[in-house]
Amino acid sequence: MDKERLRCEKLIGKVVSAEQAAALIKDGMNVGTSGFTPAGYPKAVPLALAKRVKETGEKLKINLLTGASVGDELDGAWARAGIVNKRIPYQTSNDMRKSLNDPAGVQYQDLHLSHLAQQVRYGFFGTMDIAIVEACAITKEGHIVPTTSLGNSPAFVKEAKQVIVEINTSQPLALEGMHDVYIPNDPPNREPIPITKPEQRIGTPYIECGPDKIAAIVFTDIKDGVRPLAPLDDESRAMAKNLLGFFDQEVKAGRLPANLLPLQSGVGSVANAVLAGLVESELKDLSFYSEVIQDAALDCIDAGKFRICSGTSMTPSQEGLERFYEKIDHYKKYILLRPQEISNNPEVARRLGVISMNTAIEVDIYGHVNSTHIMGTRMMNGIGGSGDFTRNAYISIFLTGSRAKDGDISSIVPMCAHIDHTEHDVQVIVTEIGVADLRNKSPREKALEIINNCAHPDYRPMLLDYYERAVKSLGKDRCHTPHIVSEALSWHDRFVKTGSMKIK
Ligand code: COA
């Protein structure tokens, strides 16, 4: 028994195998797990459950709630075993994605990430039957020390009837002290969240639980299945350059301080590449109040750019994770992990004046953004925290390459085939071509700004042609947001039918 990791004497008798712990999970249950963008999710118990179902043919359907995406040992294994009825609130697994896009597959509710914890407490999902949480240790009092993410674990543990803890010995004990756990009261007793600076600590370094609620403890050493990040390319370098040019202009105009305001940066390769651009910049004394901490955030710490890096999850690539573990005592001085209802909290984002920078799948000429649906119907990942930050940001920015799929798709389209962020929330668009500043502009002004500054030259004439025909065809009294509605989505249709948005 590793007494350094399991410090509560009362719990020693609850150490069981992954199979024994998985036996607690029954048909129809709501299961809430730790984990946020393949970091800090349970692995041994989910794998044992999937194996049991595969081997026995048992009929089992459960509802899986997490912080955000989790690794293949959970989302992948459970999707392949066909045991998920409903999945909430975000995922990035190929097999889960396949299933939730299949009418006979998983029902997926794509939710703002800051919303889930409070909605669980409000009872919107029924009872939380079991929480499975990865830990690096359990304290003497039976409280849980989380690992590389915090996500929704505090709320799941609070609401769960039973808790299964996976103590993961591949996660360094040095993670202890990096977390700041705070659960707000719910209305009508909610009080202001007392964060006025990104570095402020307001809670405890562990998740309160107590020994009685813990039904089983499993030891494992399966590592986080982190994802690779695409290398920096010319397109992402150009986007970063355009973004930095925009910041420079804002500082010169007195609309931002020289060290900017707390930055938020989205998930994925584009977001990582753009943040990497900060390393080369003249900017300093920056702060980061965001959701995921990827490789580029570590680069910014190493380059002395970030004063503080607050998020809910450590989500670097394999190399990034090794670098983080190696110098964990150094990074610990800069990194703070919070529950996602705090890292992504709209009240805090607005108070701090966060600059949000998220990635779009497509943007339309009036500034609506699609972050989730390929060609309007196929779910990619989910809205994640992009809406939490965008609606409440000091300045909200979306980045995207101007084209996708080797140039056959224009990411600037007449009308988004699905909308996650509306024209009312989106202020700046950045592509490798340039920057569209949508502040203080009407829809017609926005359209010309976006087409001229952000669209790829291959598609700009087609977009201008569409816009001008729309204005002409509508006449005087219907032209606030000019569209030829029957034609607006024909670009997507053309790609689906011919494999390219270009007119051949
Ligand atoms: N039309 C069709 N497909 C498109 C597209 C478009 N306009 N733009 C991108 N894609 C495809 C890419 O080709 C790629 O497909 P593939 O996986 O088959 O190769 C995929 O979408 C991902 O695009 P990529 O360029 O690799 O970007 P990314 O890794 O930076 O991810 C998002 C981009 C939008 C999918 C990702 O940022 C996301 O899930 N965002 C929503 C959640 C979010 O914003 N969270 C932030 C919280 S703080």
Can you walk me through this structure?
The protein has 504 residues and is an alpha/beta fold. It folds into two domains: 9-220, Glutaconate Coenzyme A-transferase, CATH 3.40.1080.10; 234-498, Glutaconate Coenzyme A-transferase. Helices cover 31% and strands 18% of the residues. The chain is built from 18 helices and 26 strands. The strands form eight sheets. Strands 4-3-2-1-5-8-9 form a seven-stranded parallel β-sheet, with helices on both faces. Strands 10-16-21-25-26 form a five-stranded mixed β-sheet. Strand 6 (137-138) and strand 7 form a beta hairpin. The protein is globular, with a radius of gyration of 23 Å. Coenzyme A binds at residues 266-271, 291, 358-359, 361-362, 371, 374, 380-381, 383-386, 404-405, 409, 411. Coenzyme A binds next to helix 8 and strand 16.
Draw up the topology in text.
Elements: H1 18-22, E1 30-33, H2 44-56, E2 62-65, H3 72-81, E3 84-88, H4 94-100, E4 107-108, H5 116-122, E5 130-135, E6 137-138, E7 144-145, H6 153-159, E8 162-168, E9 214-220, H7 234-252, E10 263-265, H8 268-276, E11 286-289, E12 292-293, H9 295-302, E13 306-311, E14 313-314, H10 318-326, H11 328-331, E15 335-337, H12 340-343, H13 346-352, E16 355-359, E17 362-364, E18 369-370, E19 373-374, E20 378-379, H14 386-390, E21 395-399, E22 403-404, E23 409-410, E24 412-413, E25 428-430, E26 435-437, H15 443-454, H16 460-474, H17 485-488, H18 490-498
Parallel strand pairs: 1-2, 1-5, 2-3, 3-4, 5-8, 8-9, 10-16, 11-13, 12-14, 13-15, 16-21, 17-24, 21-25
Antiparallel strand pairs: 6-7, 17-18, 19-20, 22-23, 25-26
Helix pairs in contact: 2-3, 3-4, 5-6, 7-8, 8-9, 15-16
